Amino acid sequence: MIIFGTRTKVLANKSQSAIGNCDYCGTVQSLFAYRQIKYFHVFWIPIFPYNSEVITICNHCKKLSYQREINPQTLQAISSGAIRKTPFRYFSGLVLIGLFVSAIVIAGIYGAKKKEKYLKDPKVGDVYEVSYTKDGKTMRTLYRIANLTTDSVTFDLNDYEADSRKGLRKLREQHADSYSEKQRLSRAELEEMKSKISNIERL
What we know:
- It contains four helices and nine strands, in the order ββββααβββαβαβ.
- The chain has helices spanning 72-77, 92-120, 165-174, 187-192, and strands spanning 4-11, 31-42, 45-58, 64-66, 127-134, 137-148, 152-158, 179-186, 197-201.
- A hairpin with a 2-residue loop joins strand 2 and strand 3.
């Protein structure tokens, strides 16, 4: 169950000093300014703020005024040093998402380089994850190199197939040694087949 939603946080006044008089009750030096942040969260982790504004509160009459209600003179009088900026932690979710995406990209680049390396220099025992179309559906299975010559590669074909990556992982766990058919491909045919190979594992 994913828990998500929005929250509101009022940041403390940095200077702890009044910024002026209250226009509502007239009390002198009773007006304090704060920054109010509204942010989106998932599992209580702040993802990003979607609203940030100055608010004022009178310590005498407790009148709360939002930025749109504050007169321009008072807004101008509010020192930028007295109002805290949005803390970096309210963007922590975006940072985590960025790191996750970066990890996926790096893993993809590494996997592509590894595949190219193994295709150029195949070894007996290499296991290829191969996809193909069957009855209009994408299926996946394993090819294991059984023999190599200068011009050809002979594969053992796994007896089982899967219709998803999750199913392929299960196939590897339960039927890793279930090979009964063979297929011989020329090096040129193997090169043409490259787009159907998603991964190569070398023991």
